[in-house]
Structures are given as structure tokens and as C-alpha cells.
Design goal:
Elements lengths: L10 H6 L10 E3 L4 E4 L4 E6 L2 E2 L7 E2 L3
Antiparallel strand pairs: 1-2, 2-3, 3-4, 3-5
Length: about 60
């Protein structure tokens, strides 16, 4: 399996996850394979079906 291969993310897991900085809910972007925290303005990557909930790994959202 390659690094770019997409794996489905468990929906139950997504319901439990919150932003580690703000504790707010996250939006799932299936196309970009990211979890979006609007309050922190960060997009956490999902790699091989695993959410990477580290602020240092997150992409900053543009205005």
C-alpha cells in the first residue's frame, strides 16, 4: 500500500474526536482527507485512515 492510498475513516471515531487545542468539534473533509477545526483555524491530516491530531502537523487554514 502506498502512502497516498486512502483508507476509510471510522465514523464512530470521528464523532469522538475534538480539536486538541480548543476541544471543539471537527468537520471531516473526505476529499482532502483532513479534519477541520474552524475555531483553531487548523486542518489535521488523515494518513492511511489515521487522524494525526498534532498541532505541529496541522495545516493552517487561509481566510
Amino acid at each position: 500500500m502506498t502512502e497516498t492510498a486512502e483508507r476509510p475513516v471510522d465514523r464512530k471515531l470521528l464523532e469522538l474526536l475534538v480539536c486538541p487545542l480548543t476541544k471543539s468539534t471537527l468537520e471531516y473533509d473526505a476529499q482532502k482527507q483532513e479534519l477541520i477545526s474552524r475555531s483553531a483555524r487548523l486542518a489535521y491530516p488523515i494518513r492511511n485512515g489515521i487522524p494525526i491530531m498534532l498541532p505541529d502537523e496541522a495545516r493552517k487554514l487561509e481566510d
